[in-house]
Amino acid sequence: MSDQLETGIKGLDDILNGGIPKGHCVLLAGSCGTGKTVMCHQFLFSGAAKGENGVYISLVEPSEKIIKNMSSFRFFDQKLVDEGKISVLDMTQDVRLKGIEFTNVEGLIGIIRSIIEDTGATRVAIDSITALCENIGEKSKIRDFVLELGFQLMYLECTTIMISEIPPATFKYSMFGVEEFIADGVILLGDFERKGDLIRTLQVIKMRGVAHSRNKQVMKIMDEGINLLPMFKAEVE
């Protein structure tokens, strides 16, 4: 088995010389509408099609709404959802049912670990690390949580994408300044205006263990999913 996992996004796999290294925890940073959710699901469905279970852990939207929004893409396969190869779960429901406070770092880690073990997932997406940290509140607890989460994901041998929500047009990758330092990789999604249109962009900031380009790419979201083009080749209508 390869030590790198294909994301299902050809241009990104080319940049990473094969994909995300197995077991890596990658921070996917971007503002509203930059394509974070689509990228995570394309990564999960690409793995599930090859027999690798995937789980999308949400704190921002109910699972039914997420599945409905993703169902229009060609990479989406309802059969994989029905068979349990892809799970989309609302973590806030587990937190409420178990009576755990969001300030309880151990409790949150336990829930995430249980979700991954119960689904047998080796590909994981967390939407979002920002929401988790905001609910925890205290900066010292946030640091402890992020570090422990990184360790637990490593022990579980998961390859994980953690969504980081950031304001538009900012030169940072997280809201609390600790998330990017425990991550093995950082992918930044952004946008810029050209001729009245907002053009999405993708840039690999870091990916440990992989020689990769740091050039900014134009990112288009199409029926088949995400398509990347070098800036100088992109044709903007």
Structure commentary:
With 237 residues, this protein is of the alpha/beta class. The chain is 35% helix and 27% strand. The protein is built from 9 helices and 11 strands. Strand 8 and strand 9 form a beta hairpin. Helix 6 runs parallel beside helix 8 (139-155) and helix 7 crosses helix 8. The radius of gyration is 17 Å and the shape is globular. The model has no long low-confidence stretch (mean pLDDT 92).
CATH architecture title? 3-Layer(aba) Sandwich
| Strand-residue proportion | 25-35%
> How is the CATH topology named?
Rossmann fold
Largest sheet, in brief, is: 9 strands, mixed
Outline: globular
* Strand order across the largest sheet: 5-4-6-7-3-8-9-10-11
Compute the number of structural domains: 1
**Estimated structural class:** alpha/beta
Instruction: Report the radius of gyration as a whole number of Å.
Output: 17 Å
Number of helices: 9
Tally of strands: 11
Pick out the low-confidence regions.
none
Distance between the termini: 41 Å
Q: Please bin the fraction of helical residues.
A: 25-40%
CATH superfamily: P-loop containing nucleotide triphosphate hydrolases
The CATH first-level class comes to: Alpha Beta
Average pLDDT: 92
Q: Helix-strand pattern, N to C?
A: EHEEHEHHEHHEHHEHEEEE
What attributes does this structure have?
27% strand, two-stranded antiparallel sheet, Rossmann fold, alpha/beta, 9 helices
